[in-house]
Amino acid sequence: MTLATYDSIGATYAVTRRPDPRIAARIHRALGDPATVINVGAGTGSYEPSQTVLAVEPSSVMIAQRPAGSAPALEAAAESIPLADDSADAAMALLTVHHWSDLEAGIGELRRIARRRIVVLTFDPDVNHGFWLLDEYLPEAAACDDTRAIAVDRLVTLLGGARIETVPIPHDCTDGFLAAFWRRPEAYLDPQVRAGISMFAQTGDEVIRPGLARLSDDLSSGRWHQRHADLLDREAVDAGYRLLVADL
What we know:
248 residues; alpha/beta; seven-stranded mixed sheet; 13 helices; 17% strand
């Protein structure tokens, strides 16, 4: 994904991508008790703990949406971070590694700037692409997404080893990433919601329009609710989101 595209989809992040406190708690536990944290691919600053001393983000549009009082932001790419070795106790990279142009270089930079720990929030494509939205309505988008999806095992290897934690997605998740609306299917028909989800921007309207039309029809007829009645009383699901925690 080009920086220009990300500048475009990032325009609504402050509205649609509000941190979910339950996911935040998981991330902060994974970080441990570092005195200093650098957030790489930081976007608008979601999930940054109070110990964050610097955010690294290539998009000026995203940086402009960071809340007042946030850690200072450095406009730079993950693949080449202009910081000294061992610059912070911990580095984190949340839902960003699949956007990097050179994964090996980016992970190498995380390992270089962090002294003690690296935390990466990513998704397992084998699980994520089985999500009903992709499996039933947007298989073409899932196929396009395969070009940027990264196997969790590959990330673990590049990190030099890491423990893997499943991050369940609550039914009322406030952070509008791809699977956040698994129990609120009508949300995917909202252009503003879709504008904050990178897969939609990467795929293009002509590919997703037929699938969204089928979803709209299935919601109107009740077919979606009949097919997914098992989801309606669930509090959370595993949609493939994973925390990787690497100690250095």
